Amino acid sequence: MGARGQQPAAAGAQGPAATAGQTAGAPAFAPGEVGIDEHLGATIPLGLVLKDEEGKPVKLGDLIDKPTILTLNFFRCTGICTPLLNGVVEAINQSPMIPGKDYQVITVSFDDRDTPEIALGKRTNYLKQINKPFPPTAWHFLTGDAATTKALTDSVGFKFKRQGDQFIHAGAIIFLSPKGKVTRYMYGITFLPADVQMAVIEAAKGEVRPTINKWLRFCFSYDPAGRGYVFSVTKAGATIVLLLAGAFLAYLVIKGPRRRDASTREKP
Predict the structure, then answer these.
(1) Which CATH architecture is the domain 5-213 placed in?
(2) pLDDT for the residue 165
(3) How far apart are CA 51 and CA 60, in angstroms?
(4) N or C: which end of the chain has fewer CB within 10 A?
Protein backbone atom coordinates (compact mmCIF):
# COMPACT_ATOMS: atom_id res chain seq x y z
CA MET A 1 0.00 0.00 0.00
CA GLY A 2 1.20 3.52 -0.69
CA ALA A 3 1.59 6.46 1.64
CA ARG A 4 -1.57 7.54 3.38
CA GLY A 5 -1.87 11.10 4.64
CA GLN A 6 -4.90 12.31 6.58
CA GLN A 7 -6.21 15.29 4.67
CA PRO A 8 -8.54 17.95 6.04
CA ALA A 9 -12.02 17.08 4.90
CA ALA A 10 -13.88 19.22 2.45
CA ALA A 11 -15.09 22.36 4.14
CA GLY A 12 -18.22 21.61 6.05
CA ALA A 13 -16.65 18.41 7.32
CA GLN A 14 -14.23 20.25 9.54
CA GLY A 15 -16.58 21.31 12.31
CA PRO A 16 -17.90 19.28 15.26
CA ALA A 17 -20.92 17.06 15.05
CA ALA A 18 -24.22 18.84 14.66
CA THR A 19 -26.06 19.76 17.81
CA ALA A 20 -29.65 20.65 18.58
CA GLY A 21 -28.69 24.31 18.50
CA GLN A 22 -27.50 24.21 14.90
CA THR A 23 -29.34 25.91 12.09
CA ALA A 24 -31.97 23.71 10.50
CA GLY A 25 -30.60 21.90 7.48
CA ALA A 26 -26.97 22.10 8.64
CA PRO A 27 -24.91 18.94 8.11
CA ALA A 28 -24.63 16.56 11.08
CA PHE A 29 -21.36 14.68 11.26
CA ALA A 30 -18.25 14.43 13.38
CA PRO A 31 -14.73 15.40 12.29
CA GLY A 32 -13.26 12.69 10.08
CA GLU A 33 -16.62 11.27 9.03
CA VAL A 34 -16.69 13.14 5.72
CA GLY A 35 -13.80 14.01 3.43
CA ILE A 36 -10.87 12.28 1.78
CA ASP A 37 -7.96 10.46 3.37
CA GLU A 38 -5.57 10.20 0.43
CA HIS A 39 -4.33 6.71 -0.35
CA LEU A 40 -1.66 7.65 -2.87
CA GLY A 41 0.13 4.61 -4.23
CA ALA A 42 -2.56 2.20 -3.08
CA THR A 43 -4.24 -0.16 -5.55
CA ILE A 44 -8.00 -0.32 -5.67
CA PRO A 45 -9.64 -3.77 -5.35
CA LEU A 46 -9.77 -4.76 -9.02
CA GLY A 47 -11.78 -7.87 -8.23
CA LEU A 48 -14.88 -5.87 -7.28
CA VAL A 49 -17.89 -6.62 -9.46
CA LEU A 50 -20.33 -3.80 -10.24
CA LYS A 51 -23.15 -3.39 -12.76
CA ASP A 52 -22.81 -1.49 -16.01
CA GLU A 53 -25.50 0.66 -17.62
CA GLU A 54 -27.20 -2.43 -19.03
CA GLY A 55 -27.28 -4.22 -15.71
CA LYS A 56 -24.51 -6.63 -16.68
CA PRO A 57 -21.90 -7.55 -14.05
CA VAL A 58 -18.50 -6.07 -14.78
CA LYS A 59 -15.24 -6.50 -12.90
CA LEU A 60 -13.22 -3.35 -12.32
CA GLY A 61 -10.05 -5.14 -13.35
CA ASP A 62 -11.56 -5.84 -16.76
CA LEU A 63 -12.35 -2.16 -17.30
CA ILE A 64 -9.21 -0.51 -16.02
CA ASP A 65 -6.61 -1.10 -18.72
CA LYS A 66 -5.58 2.51 -19.31
CA PRO A 67 -5.25 5.74 -17.28
CA THR A 68 -8.61 6.25 -15.60
CA ILE A 69 -10.33 9.26 -14.08
CA LEU A 70 -12.48 7.93 -11.26
CA THR A 71 -15.39 9.97 -9.90
CA LEU A 72 -17.48 8.92 -6.92
CA ASN A 73 -20.99 10.33 -6.93
CA PHE A 74 -24.62 9.39 -6.47
CA PHE A 75 -27.13 9.94 -9.22
CA ARG A 76 -29.89 11.49 -7.09
CA CYS A 77 -27.51 14.20 -5.88
CA THR A 78 -28.93 17.72 -5.82
CA GLY A 79 -25.67 19.39 -4.86
CA ILE A 80 -22.04 19.05 -5.88
CA CYS A 81 -22.24 15.97 -8.15
CA THR A 82 -23.72 17.69 -11.19
CA PRO A 83 -21.26 20.63 -11.15
CA LEU A 84 -18.38 18.21 -10.68
CA LEU A 85 -19.39 16.00 -13.62
CA ASN A 86 -19.97 19.14 -15.69
CA GLY A 87 -16.40 20.08 -14.80
CA VAL A 88 -15.20 16.72 -16.09
CA VAL A 89 -17.10 17.30 -19.35
CA GLU A 90 -15.50 20.74 -19.70
CA ALA A 91 -12.02 19.29 -19.18
CA ILE A 92 -12.75 16.59 -21.77
CA ASN A 93 -13.97 19.14 -24.31
CA GLN A 94 -10.81 21.22 -23.94
CA SER A 95 -8.31 18.38 -23.79
CA PRO A 96 -6.24 17.30 -26.81
CA MET A 97 -6.10 13.73 -25.49
CA ILE A 98 -7.96 10.96 -27.26
CA PRO A 99 -10.71 9.45 -25.06
CA GLY A 100 -10.81 5.68 -25.07
CA LYS A 101 -7.15 5.56 -26.08
CA ASP A 102 -5.23 7.91 -23.82
CA TYR A 103 -7.67 7.71 -20.93
CA GLN A 104 -11.17 6.81 -19.80
CA VAL A 105 -13.60 7.97 -17.14
CA ILE A 106 -15.40 5.75 -14.65
CA THR A 107 -18.17 7.15 -12.47
CA VAL A 108 -19.34 4.92 -9.64
CA SER A 109 -22.43 5.63 -7.54
CA PHE A 110 -22.02 4.90 -3.84
CA ASP A 111 -25.82 4.98 -3.37
CA ASP A 112 -27.17 1.43 -3.55
CA ARG A 113 -30.58 2.83 -4.53
CA ASP A 114 -29.20 3.89 -7.91
CA THR A 115 -29.98 1.47 -10.72
CA PRO A 116 -28.41 0.67 -14.10
CA GLU A 117 -31.38 2.42 -15.74
CA ILE A 118 -30.58 5.64 -13.89
CA ALA A 119 -26.89 5.21 -14.72
CA LEU A 120 -27.71 4.84 -18.42
CA GLY A 121 -29.73 8.04 -18.37
CA LYS A 122 -26.91 9.90 -16.67
CA ARG A 123 -24.32 8.66 -19.15
CA THR A 124 -26.54 9.58 -22.09
CA ASN A 125 -27.00 13.06 -20.67
CA TYR A 126 -23.30 13.74 -20.16
CA LEU A 127 -22.21 12.24 -23.47
CA LYS A 128 -24.53 14.71 -25.21
CA GLN A 129 -22.56 17.56 -23.64
CA ILE A 130 -19.26 16.42 -25.13
CA ASN A 131 -18.49 18.35 -28.33
CA LYS A 132 -15.81 16.07 -29.75
CA PRO A 133 -15.65 12.44 -30.91
CA PHE A 134 -16.11 10.38 -27.79
CA PRO A 135 -16.82 6.64 -27.75
CA PRO A 136 -19.52 5.76 -25.18
CA THR A 137 -17.27 3.04 -23.76
CA ALA A 138 -14.79 5.73 -22.69
CA TRP A 139 -17.11 6.79 -19.85
CA HIS A 140 -18.72 4.13 -17.68
CA PHE A 141 -21.45 4.82 -15.12
CA LEU A 142 -21.52 1.93 -12.65
CA THR A 143 -23.74 0.93 -9.75
CA GLY A 144 -23.59 -1.77 -7.10
CA ASP A 145 -24.63 -2.92 -3.68
CA ALA A 146 -23.58 -0.94 -0.61
CA ALA A 147 -20.84 -3.35 0.47
CA THR A 148 -19.16 -3.39 -2.93
CA THR A 149 -19.21 0.35 -3.51
CA LYS A 150 -18.02 1.01 0.04
CA ALA A 151 -15.07 -1.30 -0.54
CA LEU A 152 -14.14 0.92 -3.47
CA THR A 153 -14.65 4.22 -1.65
CA ASP A 154 -12.70 2.95 1.34
CA SER A 155 -9.80 1.91 -0.90
CA VAL A 156 -9.33 5.52 -2.06
CA GLY A 157 -10.13 7.12 1.31
CA PHE A 158 -13.42 8.67 0.19
CA LYS A 159 -15.67 9.25 3.23
CA PHE A 160 -19.33 10.17 3.00
CA LYS A 161 -22.40 10.14 5.20
CA ARG A 162 -26.10 9.80 4.48
CA GLN A 163 -28.27 12.73 5.53
CA GLY A 164 -31.93 12.12 4.85
CA ASP A 165 -32.37 11.38 1.15
CA GLN A 166 -28.97 12.79 0.29
CA PHE A 167 -25.31 12.22 1.14
CA ILE A 168 -22.69 14.60 2.45
CA HIS A 169 -19.42 14.10 0.61
CA ALA A 170 -16.37 15.86 -0.83
CA GLY A 171 -15.83 16.80 -4.46
CA ALA A 172 -12.81 15.29 -6.20
CA ILE A 173 -11.61 13.25 -9.14
CA ILE A 174 -9.09 10.47 -8.63
CA PHE A 175 -6.53 9.29 -11.18
CA LEU A 176 -5.69 5.61 -11.53
CA SER A 177 -2.90 3.90 -13.41
CA PRO A 178 -3.66 1.09 -15.91
CA LYS A 179 -3.01 -1.29 -13.02
CA GLY A 180 -5.44 0.45 -10.68
CA LYS A 181 -2.89 2.38 -8.60
CA VAL A 182 -4.02 5.70 -7.14
CA THR A 183 -1.67 8.32 -8.57
CA ARG A 184 -3.31 11.68 -7.89
CA TYR A 185 -6.31 13.51 -6.42
CA MET A 186 -7.80 16.74 -7.75
CA TYR A 187 -10.31 18.64 -5.63
CA GLY A 188 -13.15 20.98 -6.45
CA ILE A 189 -15.65 21.07 -9.30
CA THR A 190 -13.55 22.57 -12.11
CA PHE A 191 -10.33 21.17 -13.49
CA LEU A 192 -7.73 22.78 -15.73
CA PRO A 193 -7.31 20.73 -18.92
CA ALA A 194 -3.51 21.04 -18.70
CA ASP A 195 -3.54 19.69 -15.15
CA VAL A 196 -5.79 16.80 -16.16
CA GLN A 197 -3.57 15.98 -19.12
CA MET A 198 -0.45 15.96 -16.96
CA ALA A 199 -2.18 13.76 -14.36
CA VAL A 200 -3.20 11.30 -17.10
CA ILE A 201 0.35 11.16 -18.45
CA GLU A 202 1.67 10.49 -14.95
CA ALA A 203 -0.99 7.83 -14.35
CA ALA A 204 0.04 6.09 -17.57
CA LYS A 205 3.53 5.75 -16.11
CA GLY A 206 2.24 4.80 -12.68
CA GLU A 207 3.85 7.91 -11.17
CA VAL A 208 2.36 9.07 -7.87
CA ARG A 209 2.14 12.82 -7.33
CA PRO A 210 1.21 14.69 -4.14
CA THR A 211 -1.81 16.96 -4.10
CA ILE A 212 -0.77 20.56 -4.71
CA ASN A 213 -4.15 22.29 -4.48
CA LYS A 214 -5.41 21.15 -1.09
CA TRP A 215 -6.31 24.75 -0.23
CA LEU A 216 -9.21 24.54 -2.67
CA ARG A 217 -11.14 22.39 -0.25
CA PHE A 218 -10.77 25.00 2.46
CA CYS A 219 -12.27 27.57 0.10
CA PHE A 220 -15.37 25.46 -0.48
CA SER A 221 -18.19 25.73 2.06
CA TYR A 222 -21.14 23.47 2.62
CA ASP A 223 -24.37 25.10 1.43
CA PRO A 224 -27.27 23.55 3.42
CA ALA A 225 -29.89 24.99 1.06
CA GLY A 226 -28.24 23.60 -2.06
CA ARG A 227 -26.79 20.60 -0.25
CA GLY A 228 -23.49 21.08 -1.98
CA TYR A 229 -20.15 22.83 -1.73
CA VAL A 230 -19.68 26.34 -3.03
CA PHE A 231 -16.63 28.54 -3.37
CA SER A 232 -16.32 30.86 -0.39
CA VAL A 233 -14.92 34.23 -1.38
CA THR A 234 -14.87 35.20 2.30
CA LYS A 235 -12.67 32.28 3.30
CA ALA A 236 -10.36 32.72 0.33
CA GLY A 237 -10.11 36.46 0.99
CA ALA A 238 -9.49 35.93 4.69
CA THR A 239 -6.71 33.48 3.88
CA ILE A 240 -5.01 36.00 1.60
CA VAL A 241 -5.38 38.78 4.17
CA LEU A 242 -3.86 36.61 6.90
CA LEU A 243 -0.92 35.69 4.66
CA LEU A 244 -0.28 39.33 3.80
CA ALA A 245 -0.60 40.38 7.44
CA GLY A 246 1.85 37.67 8.45
CA ALA A 247 4.33 38.79 5.80
CA PHE A 248 4.01 42.43 6.91
CA LEU A 249 4.51 41.49 10.56
CA ALA A 250 7.62 39.50 9.67
CA TYR A 251 8.92 42.52 7.75
CA LEU A 252 8.42 44.79 10.78
CA VAL A 253 10.11 42.32 13.11
CA ILE A 254 13.16 42.04 10.85
CA LYS A 255 13.31 45.71 9.87
CA GLY A 256 12.90 47.10 13.41
CA PRO A 257 16.28 46.01 14.85
CA ARG A 258 18.06 47.20 11.70
CA ARG A 259 16.64 50.69 12.06
CA ARG A 260 17.62 50.84 15.75
CA ASP A 261 21.15 49.69 14.92
CA ALA A 262 21.45 52.31 12.19
CA SER A 263 20.20 55.03 14.55
CA THR A 264 22.72 54.03 17.21
CA ARG A 265 25.62 54.18 14.76
CA GLU A 266 24.63 57.70 13.63
CA LYS A 267 24.83 59.17 17.17
CA PRO A 268 28.13 61.05 17.89
Answers:
(1) 3-Layer(aba) Sandwich (3.40)
(2) 86
(3) 10
(4) C
The packing angle between helices 193-205 and 81-94, to 10°, is: 80
Over the stretch 120-145, which tens digit does the pLDDT of each residue have? 999 999 999 999 999 999 999 999 99
- Smallest Cα–Cα separation from 139: which of 151, 122, 114, 156? 122
Dihedral sign, Cα of residue 139, residue 223, residue 169, residue 69:
positive
Q: Is the dihedral of CA 29, 35, 41, 44 positive or negative?
A: positive
Backbone angles phi, psi at 222, to 5 degrees: -75, 130
Cα 87 to Cα 93, 103, 174, 209, 268: the distances in Å are 10, 16, 14, 21, 69
12-22 confidence digits (pLDDT tens)? 333 322 222 33
Helices and strands of the chain, counted as H and E runs: 7, 14
CA distances (Å), origin 238, targets 32, 234, 235, 241 = 24, 6, 5, 5
Q: Domain segments of the chain: what residues?
A: 5-213
pLDDT in tens, 157-170: 999 988 888 888 98
